[in-house]
Amino acid sequence: MKVQVYPPPFANLTALDENGGLDLEPGARLFSVYRRLKIPLVLQPLIVCNVNYQRVKLNTQLKEGDVISFILPLTGG
Amino acid sequence: MKGYCGKILMVDLTSSAFDEIAIPDDIYEHFLSGVGLGAYILYKYLPKGTDPLSPDNVLGFVSGLLTGTGSFMTGRWLAVCKSPLTGGFGDANCGGTFSPAIKQCGYDAIFFKGKAAKPVFLFIDNKGPRLIDALSLWGQDTVETEASIRSIVTSKKRLAIATIGPAGEHQSLIAGISNDGGRMAARSGVGAVMGSKNLKAVVLGGSKLIRTQDPDEIKEISQAYAKKVKSSNLPAITTGAILPILGKSMVATDKAIPIDGMMSTAIMKKWGTGFGNTMGMTMGDAPVKNWKGSIADFPYRKYHHMNPDLIQKHETQKYHCYSCIIGCGGVCDIKGVSKGRFSHTHKPEYETVAAFGSLLLNKDRDAIFLINELLNRGGMDSISAGNTIAFAMECYEKGWLSDEATGGLDLSWGNTAAIVTLVEQMIAAEGFGAVLQNGVKKASEILGLASAPLAMHAGGQEPGMHDPRLDPILGIHFSCDPTPGRHTIGAGSYYNYMRLWESVSWAPKVKLGEDKTEEYEANSNVGLKSMANACIKQVLDGSGGCFFAMLSGFNHFKLFDYLNAATGWNKTPNEYMTIGLRMQTLRQCFNVREGINPRDFKINKRLSGQPPLTEGPLKGKSFKMDEMMGIHYQFMGWDQKTGIPTRAALENLGFCDLEMEDISHG
Question: Which CATH number is A2-70 given?
Answer without folding.
Answer: 3.10.20
